[in-house]
């Protein structure tokens, strides 16, 4: 048992110097992205905001979307309806260009701005470090190592040292030397942000390894059962796509349409319970339809198994939106903590190793 604390310290040290750096980059980029809706809306009012949006009906938004699609059918790749900070309709064309349209009259409002592109690049760095192919596995793997080993080993070390004097373990003595203040910052912030960082790291790994997460979540299906009504729309049903866009869903708002790229492709319709950011559970619906109108797949929060409902909450948990404004503020602050822990941990390593060796010599 005496060997275990030494192993925990080694794990904490080496993972801190490796995964800690990646977690710092992910944390800082994620902290900034928390306020992406407010920042992009403020910087792009003509592209994203509409006067008296509340007076525009769901039917009008769908009618405008259908008209825009019908007029430019062959060149449309994706259509994004009002969602989160965006009150307008945007169309991504097969050329890669993105244009924004008024949701009621279909007037062109402009093309994608530099600030919108900046946040798209930011989230790409957050999820992949900007590295093609393997970047997401580096970030996702680091998040899981951070969750399983780095945070738990740090808490174990803290508990072994301060379980008899918790007050000492959470106190920062600012008037002592730099080495001591550095150590106090590391242990105190590590303690107070242990749970937020655990949740962020666990949910962050989902975006890379969602298939494995969902398999794990399926264990809950054996204990809990969704008692909501079965899906009212079955696979193999045939839908009129025009009718689908002309008649709003009674429970969900259509937020995105993905147009097939080839003869074998399918239409994907993605729905959300609330168009704009609200606290609470994230409720979604997805519909896949082939080019003959045949329903290939339909999934809805109301009738999905519990495991799928849990999976749907990974994004709002990760970004704090599930707990409203306070949750987002907590995630924003927590995003800076990995960088703080990395810097203070590196300094501690330097003080204990290199500087000690130099002084001896």
UniProtKB/TrEMBL annotation:
InterPro entries (UniProt xref): PepSY-ass_TM (IPR005625)
Keyword terms, alphabetized: Membrane, Transmembrane, Transmembrane helix
Entry annotated with the keyword S-adenosyl-L-methionine: no
Coiled coil: none
Transmembrane segments: 12-35, 137-159, 188-209, 329-350
A Pfam entry, by short name: PepSY_TM
Identification of the protein by name: Putative iron-regulated membrane protein
């Amino acid at each position: 048992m005496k060997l275990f604390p030494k192993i925990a310290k080694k794990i904490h040290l080496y993972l801190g110097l490796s995964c800690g750096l990646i977690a710092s980059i992910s944390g800082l980029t994620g902290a900034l992205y928390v306020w992406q809706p407010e920042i992009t809306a403020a910087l792009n009012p003509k592209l994203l905001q509409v006067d008296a949006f509340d007076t525009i009906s769901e039917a009008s938004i769908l009618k405008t979307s259908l008209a825009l699609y019908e007029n430019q059918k062959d060149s449309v790749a994706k259509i994004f309806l009002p969602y989160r900070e965006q009150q307008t309709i945007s169309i991504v064309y097969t050329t890669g260009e993105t244009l924004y349209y008024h949701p009621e009259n279909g007037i062109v409002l402009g093309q994608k701005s530099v600030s919108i592109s900046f946040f798209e690049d930011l989230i790409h760095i957050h999820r992949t470090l900007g590295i093609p192919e393997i970047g997401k596995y580096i970030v996702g793997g680091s998040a899981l190592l951070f969750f399983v080993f780095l945070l738990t080993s740090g808490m174990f070390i803290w508990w072994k040292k301060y379980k008899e004097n918790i007050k000492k373990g959470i106190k920062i003595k600012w008037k002592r030397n730099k080495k001591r203040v550095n150590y106090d910052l590391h242990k105190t912030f590590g303690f107070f942000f242990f749970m937020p960082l655990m949740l962020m790291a666990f949910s962050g790994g989902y975006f890379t390894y969602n298939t494995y997460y969902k398999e794990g979540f399926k264990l809950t299906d054996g204990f809990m059962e969704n008692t909501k009504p079965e899906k009212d729309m079955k696979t193999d049903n045939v839908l009129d796509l025009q009718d689908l866009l002309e008649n709003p869903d009674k429970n969900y708002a259509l937020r995105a349409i993905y147009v097939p790229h080839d003869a074998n492709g399918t239409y994907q319709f993605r729905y959300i319970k609330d168009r704009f950011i609200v606290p609470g559970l994230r409720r979604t619906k997805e519909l896949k339809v082939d080019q003959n109108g045949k329903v290939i797949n339909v999934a809805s929060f109301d009738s999905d198994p519990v495991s799928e409902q849990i999976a749907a909450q990974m994004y709002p948990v990760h970004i704090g939106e599930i707990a409203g404004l306070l949750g987002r503020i907590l995630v924003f602050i927590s995003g800076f903590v990995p960088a703080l822990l990395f810097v203070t941990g590196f300094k501690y390593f330097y003080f204990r190793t290199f500087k000690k060796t130099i002084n001896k010599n």
